[in-house]
Amino acid sequence: MNSSISPEVIAHLEQGSVPGPAPEALILSVEQQYRLTFPSDYRAFLLKYGAALMPGFEVFGLVASHTDGEAPTWSDIRSFLRKSPPCVPSGWVQISDDGMDHRFFLACAPRSDNSGVFVLGPAAQGTRVSPNFSAFVEAAASYGIEFLATIYLRKALD
Question: For 86-99, what is the mean pLDDT?
Answer without folding.
Answer: 92
